[in-house]
Amino acid sequence: MSLLSRFTSLFTREDRASVDWQDLEATLIASDIGPTLAKKISDRLHDEKKLTLEVALGELLISADRSLVSAESPPTVILVVGVNGSGKTTSVGKLAARLHAQGASVVVVAADTFRAAAREQLQTWATRIGVTCVGGKDGADPAAVAFDGVSQAVDQGADYVIIDTAGRLQTKEGLMDQLGKIRRVVEKKAPVSEVLLVLDGSTGQNALSQGASFTSAVQVTGLVLTKLDGSSKGGAALAIEATLGIPIKLIGTGEGLSDIAPFEPDSYIAALVGR
Amino acid sequence: MFDALTSRMSRTLAGLRSRGRINPVDLESTCGEIRTALLEADVALIVVDQLITEVKRRGLEAISLKQAGINPAQQVITIIHEEILKVLGTNLRPLAQAKKPPTKIMLAGLQGSGKTTLAGKLALWLKEQGNTPLLVACDLVRPNAVTQLQIIGEQIGVPVFAPEPGNGSGNPISVAKAGLDHAEQKLFNYVIFDTAGRLGVDVELMKEARAIKSAITPDDTLFVVDAMTGQDAVNTANAFNSGVGIDGVVLTKVDGDARAGAALSVTSVIGKPILFLSTGEKSSEFEPFYPDRMAQRILGMGDVATLADQAKKALDEKSAARLEEKFISGEDFTFDDFLEQLQAMKKMGSMTKLLGMLPGLPGAQGAQMKKQIEALDDSETDRAAAIIQSMTPHERNNPKIINGSRRLRIARGSGNEVSSVNRLLERFAGAQKAMKQMKNIRPGAMPQIPGLGAPPAQRPPQRAGKKSRSGNPAKRAEEERG
Questions:
Q1: How far apart are CA B469 and CA B23, in angstroms?
Q2: With DSSP H G I counted as helix, E B as strand and the rest as coil, what are the percentages for chain A, rounded to 5?
Q3: Which residues of A touch B281 (CB under 8 A)?
Q4: What interface predicted TM-score (ipTM) does this complex get?
Q5: Cα–Cα distance, B259 to B6 (Å, whole number)
Q6: A45-54, B23-32, B116-125, B297-306 — which one is most confidently predicted on average?
Q7: What domains are defined for chain B?
Q8: Which residues of chain A have a CB within 8 Å of the CB of B262?
Q9: Which residues 43-82 of A are in CB contact (within 8 Å) with B?
Q10: What is the CATH number of domain A76-264?
Q11: Cβ of A121 and B144 within 8 Å?
């Protein structure tokens, strides 16, 4: 239960006099939206007498289409990127399961040729779901593996191909360039419709740096916010959306295959303020 | 690492340094700046506020004392440094060692915090110190976590006890017990238990972690935490501390940018020390935690001590001694030496990481330099090595003879453009010059590492009005060349 709920009732009653502004700002900071945005929201609430906390937070979200873009002609290529341990492979598995359950044919590609057993991890997911998994040898060129995967998806006439990439910290320029290369090589075969940045829900302000760097490397089109079943609120994703204009598209809410859902702004804000 | 915090702090503190005296109003606004800087770095609010209160209290005291000969601005800087150090240095201790081996170490943490990678790093570190570690694969939840640990074990040459294939089946408690028995029978002196990632709010899984813990009674239970964690670090640390019981903390993914936050938050809230930092993806990228180094790094003073340590580790003593000998005797620095140092640097870890340890320059200039430095990475080193290896021994010893046609041959041989060869030659010339100068400054000093300097064309302007020479040879050579 969020501490912010203490404030929601105050603002709905338009009862500004009893608000502890410092406390409000502190509570906003605790949700990881960052000191700057926290100050901005608190200032707005202070000045605009009719504004409620939910509306103020909701207005940080952009009004973008949050559904996954599909290609004009299949397969729809989805590239999944992110830092180490954010939950990319799990998200690829869940997304594949979701699309598969909707009746689509899916190919997953293990282009993480760096981390030990990353291919096996994805392969295990693929077997459980019943989708094709294409992988390369450990240490193989990830762009080549991605290209092979997309080629196979084209040959199979698959509807979706989801490419899992190795985790990389956004400060590693060489590895970020490699992502650009993966994209360029894949696009020789089929256009990339979505580049999803997977963001750990417990990440703090570093999320902004991740968002900016991955976008400049591969033009991120959407966020997948993971691990929202813990005690963190994922407020950093809100900060990314507000400052970089990248929409949150999917959320991961648990360890099961079906624990992935489209992002719903209203329920997210409600959870953030603890309703 | 901790760049964002560092640069913000540097800015704030530079403002303070330039002043002789500060008054309570200055102190207040400085504290406000520091507060925002710490919050942006994800230090938990409660920790930030404690820190700021203390800095303010002691700052006011310092102002009122007005001791002769002491610059109050300098004093505030000292106070901030001391307070951060106080938090980071809480109950500092080395890794536990059991009276009767094996020493049992259990790793716990959230999913994706880096436990399995860390298990390998810790094992390698122990092995390098002459121990015989055993890894036990108790993460039976995440698909192929067991395989991952087995592969890592093979890479670093440490046995892995993995009776269960994992992937959702098997009992981690019995695996842990059997692993301990195995270690006792085979006389391993350390056992590292890798457990499944779990959420602090997941009561069932916390119970399981506690059950593993009571089955093996570890000598050290380490909480593995991602350096990028936000405000929630405090809740998670508290949940693991009350749910499982934590003895120490390991901070992972420290090679990224920013985030001193989790380090300060976790140690402060649960009062347990940070033991190690995990600083990269390779198994060797791992180091013991030194609070003074970290505090200095946070305040933009750089981390020269760690750099020197790593240099010592990478340049084996024999070749370092040979290089020193060369400097003293005044022999020429050749491409062979250059190559040797490049290879040593690879061992030390990526350039980015290495250079992150050097004292930062404040302001836009510093940021610019950082950016240039970050643009260099291992692939650059590989390219340089390829070019040097395409030279004949004669060319390596007498770089002056490398004319146009030789350059073309070297470029073709190494799969590069002639311009890349030219650039390397230019850099080498710079390095050679620096070496000669160094010899005159302090014979027998740690050899300068030529690749460390930014390429000549990108060299940042020298700091104006510099009085003292940097204590770091690489840095100093850079200054003098500039």
A1: 32
A2: 45, 15, 35
A3: 84, 114-115
A4: 0.83
A5: 10
A6: B116-125
A7: 3-88 (1.20.120.140), 103-298 (3.40.50.300), 304-481 (1.10.260.30)
A8: 204
A9: none
A10: 3.40.50.300
A11: yes
